[in-house]
Each structure stands twice: as structure tokens, then as C-alpha cells.
Amino acid sequence: MRPWSFRTERGSASLEFLTVGLILMVPLVYLVLAVSALQAGALAAEGAARQAARAFVQAANEEAGQAAAGRALAVTLADYGLPAETSTLEFDCGDGQPRCLVRGEVVTVSVRVTVALPLVPDVLGLQQSASVPLAASATQRVSTFWGGGP
Questions:
Q1: Given 16, 50, 62, 147, which is the most exposed site by the fewest CB atoms within 10 A?
Q2: Most distant CA pair in the chain: distance in Å?
């Protein structure tokens, strides 16, 4: 039997495994969390744009359409756990028309969402600088049977 000395490596493999495991696993877990948050934000922006465009073109007039699109945006973002305050909604009528709701007209709705990265504290404005802006747009055509206009 060998005498005990400081040079024995008994038990050091588990210590090395834990150290290297922590050094590698913590960034990997954060990367998965960040990518998941960004993917959820991208899906939320795309879904919100699609639903807002559908709600807008089915409304009776433009004011009701903008209100319906705003509600669709808020509901869709809430489904993904994102606050509606971090988003913007824009409408674009084809060919520079003053009115969007015209039979057969194409309406494009653009949504911009700001997604905060996970586990970033809101100290010294870090939350604002550690956020990623995402955008999506959807195009819908106003029905030829739309009853609100000419």
C-alpha cells in the first residue's frame, strides 16, 4: 500500500468535471434561454402582424380597424408574455392611397417589438441596452365584397 501524499490524483477527476462542467454549462444554458426569448419574440411579432392585418381589413371603417388591430396586437403579445408597450404598429396602403379600406386594396401591417434578454437586471439602463428589436409585417387584401366603402 502506498503512503498518502499530495501528489495523488484520487478524487480530482470529479473536481475537474464539476469545474469544467460549470464553466461550460452556465454560458450554454444562458445561450439557450436567450435564443428561446428571441425566437418567442420573432414568433410573437409575426403572429401579431398577421392577426392585426386580418382584424384591420375586416373592420367597418379605418378607426375601428386600427382599434381592432391594436387589440389583436395586445392579445397576441400577451400570449407570448411580452408587454404591448414595447411594440409599435404601422399601416401601409398600397400606391400611397389616403384610405386603406378600399375594395381590393392591399394593406401591409408592420409590427416592431423590443425583446429584452433574460436575466439582465434593470440597473443603470442595462435592460434597455440589452434588448433586441424585432420586426415583422403581414399583407392582406381588402375583400371585394367589403361593405364599408365604394
A1: 147
A2: 100
* Side chain identity, residue 19: T
CA distance 150 to 142: 12
What are 18-35's pLDDT values in tens digits? Answer: 888 888 888 999 999 999
State pLDDT tens for residues 106-139: 999 999 999 988 888 877 777 778 889 999 999 9
* 3-state per-residue secondary structure call for 74-135: HHHHHHCCCCHHHEEEEEEEHHHCCCCCCCCCEEEEEEEEEEECCCCCCCCCHHHHCEEEEE
Q: CB under 8 Å to 16, separation ≥6 — which residues?
A: none
